[in-house]
Amino acid sequence: MSGPVSHTGFNAGQFGTQGDLAALDRRIGTIVELGGDVCELAAVRLDVVSACRLLEDRLVALRAVLAKHAIRYTLHAPIAVNLMDEPHLDLHLRAARASLELASECAADTVVIHPGRVHPALWADKARALLNREQDTLSELADRADELGVRIAYENMSPNRRIVGGTETSYALDMAALAAQLAAVGHKALVACLDVSHARQGAVLQGFDMYDQVKVLAPHVGHVHFSDSTGIPATIQWDNEGERLFFGVGDMHAPPGMGEIDFDRLAAGLTVQEGTAIVIELKENHFLHSAPQTLQGARLFASALSRA
C-alpha cells in the first residue's frame, strides 16, 4: 500500500481465542484470506504471560502459529496497565515491560497501551504531579521499547463505565492533552494510537469538536484503531451487548456507517506517520457479516489520508 499507511487489517478478536492457539491460527488465516496484511494480537488472550513473566513453552507454540502467516503483527497490552496507579505502579511497570518483551519475541513492532487514569478527586488534587510522573515512566518504557526494536502507541481513551459513572477520569479523553503529554516525553519510540471511535466518544462527552482536535494529535499519530460509533455515552442499563449496539451507545466497535463519524472529514484533517497501520476493531457479530466491506472502508480511509 502506498502512502503513509503501510498496512490495513484487523485485531485478532475478543472472542474465541482465550489461549486457544488453534483458534488464533484460524482467525489470522481468515484475516489473510480477507486481504488484511496486519493483525493486532491481544496480550491477555494468548496465555503466554503469567505473573508478568513469559512462559517459554507457550511462547514457542505461539511463534510457530504466527510464523505460518505472511502478515505484520502488532500487540495490544493489557487494558489494565495504568501508569497513574501509583500504589501499584511497580506491578503496572512489570506488565508493561512484559508486553514489550512479548511483542519483541513475536516480531510485533508496535505495542498499544492505554494512558493513565485516576479518581476525579485525585486528579483535581494532583494532576500536574501525575502527569510528570507518567512522563518519567513513559520515557523509561520507551527506552526499553527502543532497545527491543518496538515502539509504544499511546491510545486516546474512551469513556468507559467507570468514567461515565464518575469514579475515574483520564486526561487522554482530550486528544490535545494527549498530544501535549507525548510532546513532553518526546521519545522516538513513542507515538499516538488514534482510536477513531474513542475520539468520537471523548468529543461528545466533553463537548469539543473531534475534527479540530484530531489535527492537534496528528503529528504524533503512528497507529490507528478503526471503527464507527455515535459517541453517545453508555449511561443506560442494558442486558446484553446486542441491546447496547441496538441503542448505539458506548464503544460500539461497528463498521463505518453504523455510527455517526464522518470519515472523509476526519481524513481531510489528519496526517499520520510513515508506516502507520490501520487496525480494524469490530464486535464479533460485525466481523462475521461485515468484515470485507469494513476492510474496504478502512482502505478508502487510508487512501484519503494519502491524498490529504
Structure description:
The chain is of the alpha/beta class. The chain has helices at 21-34, 56-66, 89-105, 120-148, 161-164, 175-185, 196-206, 210-217, 241-247, 263-268, 284-307, and strands at residues 5-11, 38-42, 49-50, 53-54, 72-76, 108-113, 151-155, 190-195, 221-226, 276-280. The chain has one domain (5-307): TIM Barrel (Alpha-Beta Barrel). The chain is built from eleven helices and ten strands. The strands form two sheets. An eight-stranded parallel beta barrel has the order 1-2-5-6-7-8-9-10, surrounded by six helices. The chain has a two-stranded antiparallel sheet with strand order 3-4. Helix 3 (89-105) links the parallel strand 5 (72-76) and strand 6 (108-113). The protein is globular and about 50 Å long. The model has no long low-confidence stretch (mean pLDDT 95).
Number of domains: 1
Number of strands: 10
| Sheet having the most strands | 8 strands, parallel, barrel
- As laid out across the biggest beta sheet, the strand order is 1-2-5-6-7-8-9-10
Low-confidence stretches: none
Topology as H/E string?
EHEEEHEHEHEHHEHHEHHEH
* Beta-strand percent range: 15-25%
Q: Helix/strand/pairing class, anyone?
A: alpha/beta
Annotated CATH architecture: Alpha-Beta Barrel
CATH uppermost class: Alpha Beta
Q: What is the radius of gyration computed over CA atoms, rounded to a whole number of angstroms?
A: 18 Å
Arithmetic mean pLDDT: 95
User: Outline, from the CA principal axes?
Assistant: globular
Total helical elements: 11
CATH superfamily assignment?
Answer: Divalent-metal-dependent TIM barrel enzymes
Gap between N and C termini: 16 Å
Q: What is the share of helical residues?
A: 40-55%
- CATH-assigned fold name: TIM Barrel
